[in-house]
């Protein structure tokens, strides 16, 4: 059941125990404990007020508030440049049908936090990744003249002024380079070298004096005498006549043809075959040569698996915390991605790489508590690391299961695995009642045709 509660100047909607604030002006946010609300509904069609509300919520210093569900009352229509930062329209008379979406978003942002020490650029990256993750959506920009670069991005555009579009694109490029965001090409834009604006007027101009006062004339080729000249030289009162042989030209294709055109400059009288092209920025009036324009990629962005791990402090969300080891070894989920990349590399280079899996079984160790298992894992990881090369990668799946990626390693250079096997067996045998602890090592040569999933079954 939908309840609208009015307390002083506050307008709250309660639906299935979830609390939402109807907002028509930012002043209504000032006296509210925003962190205790489950979402917001924009209740105005005044674009300035709506933009202020969106900005105040989405850029809020509390990440839980900035990622909160933000809807628009369906009786109002906001421009696309504002609506792109919201979670869409809602009909208040059937508001209960939107609660599942709210539950999904709230569940995904529940454990998100911001590091105490983080740069402004990284903070924007983190929040953008979190927005993509919490909505499980691709952040696709929209074309708009309101933007300097011609495109507005969901969420992240709110953190940059209009003249800071290059910084926005640069931050997205860094996130892609760090593999925290993936990108799908949408468009290329060409921007002014001075102000990075996209509002350009392309003009042909004279290559000698740069004047745009030029005209194009067709070239005429007279078949009989082979004379070639601009069409203006052939013109007479009653048609065309060859200035070389004085014969009249009556039928194109029979008497003559027009093989090309030539430009004439009305400023300096220079004649030329190919005009130069320049782009005038209508924002700052800078003339740009085409090779001076800044070419930037416009893409659709989505958080990657690595990005999700960054959001949750490098811990895998697919494993219980007690099974996710962080002791100087790589997280298993990230390790699987690296292995998959290695398979693709081997497919191209035909090089030699190996994957080793180290396991052991012991009922005594299974009875250890979580802290003791973690200490054991640290000890085992330390022994393994001492025999690895700088290029080798270790991943601890759990206290008795480890993976090692050995890139660019020949079969006759795997003796370090024997040393690892011997020393692990000695460590466990010396500390357990068993006379001899068996350490099992499986070795797989990586092929370009492999499926990485078979390694981790």
Automatic annotation (TrEMBL):
<dbReference type="InterPro" id="IPR040572">
    <property type="entry name" value="TackOD1"/>
</dbReference>
<feature type="domain" description="Thaumarchaeal output">
    <location>
        <begin position="124"/>
        <end position="303"/>
    </location>
</feature>
<protein>
    <recommendedName>
        <fullName>Thaumarchaeal output domain-containing protein</fullName>
    </recommendedName>
</protein>
<dbReference type="Pfam" id="PF18551">
    <property type="entry name" value="TackOD1"/>
</dbReference>
């Amino acid at each position: 059941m939908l309840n609208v509660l009015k307390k002083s100047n506050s307008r709250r909607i309660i639906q299935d125990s979830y609390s939402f604030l109807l907002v028509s002006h930012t002043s209504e946010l000032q006296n509210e404990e925003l962190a205790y609300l489950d979402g917001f509904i924009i209740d105005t069609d005044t674009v300035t007020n709506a933009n202020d509300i969106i900005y105040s919520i989405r850029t809020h210093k509390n990440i839980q508030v900035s990622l909160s569900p933000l809807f628009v009352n369906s009786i109002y229509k906001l421009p696309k440049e504002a609506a792109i930062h919201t979670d869409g329209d809602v009909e208040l008379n059937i508001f209960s049908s939107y609660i599942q979406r709210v539950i999904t978003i709230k569940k995904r942002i529940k454990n998100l936090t911001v590091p105490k020490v983080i740069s402004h650029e990284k903070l924007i990256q983190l929040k953008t990744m979190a927005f993509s993750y919490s909505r499980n959506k691709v952040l696709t920009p929209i074309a708009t003249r309101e933007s300097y670069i011609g495109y507005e991005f969901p969420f992240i555009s709110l953190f940059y002024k209009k003249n800071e579009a290059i910084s926005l694109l640069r931050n997205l490029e860094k996130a892609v380079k760090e593999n925290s965001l993936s990108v799908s090409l949408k468009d290329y834009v060409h921007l002014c070298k001075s102000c990075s604006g996209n509002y350009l007027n392309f003009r042909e101009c004279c290559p000698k004096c740069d004047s745009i006062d030029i005209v194009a004339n067709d070239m005429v080729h007279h078949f009989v005498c082979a004379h070639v000249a601009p069409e203006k030289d052939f013109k007479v009162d009653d048609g065309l006549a060859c200035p070389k042989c004085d014969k009249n030209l009556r039928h194109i294709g029979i008497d003559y043809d027009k093989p090309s055109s030539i430009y004439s400059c009305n400023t300096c009288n220079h004649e030329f075959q190919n005009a130069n092209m320049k782009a005038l920025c209508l924002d700052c009036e800078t003339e740009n040569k085409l090779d001076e324009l800044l070419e930037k990629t416009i893409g659709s962005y989505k958080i990657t698996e690595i990005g999700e791990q960054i959001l949750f402090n490098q811990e895998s969300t697919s494993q219980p915390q007690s099974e996710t080891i962080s002791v100087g070894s790589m997280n298993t989920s990230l390790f699987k991605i690296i292995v998959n990349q290695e398979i693709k590399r081997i497919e191209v280079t035909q090089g030699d790489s190996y994957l080793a899996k180290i396991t052991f079984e012991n009922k005594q160790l299974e009875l250890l508590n979580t802290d003791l298992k973690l200490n054991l894992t640290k000890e085992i990881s330390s022994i393994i690391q001492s025999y690895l090369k700088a290029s080798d990668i270790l991943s601890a799946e759990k206290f008795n299961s480890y993976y090692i990626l050995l890139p660019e390693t020949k079969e006759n250079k795997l003796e370090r695995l024997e040393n690892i096997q011997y020393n692990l067996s000695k460590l466990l045998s010396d500390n357990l009642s068993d006379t001899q602890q068996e350490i099992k090592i499986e070795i797989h040569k990586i092929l370009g045709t492999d499926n990485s999933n078979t390694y981790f079954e």
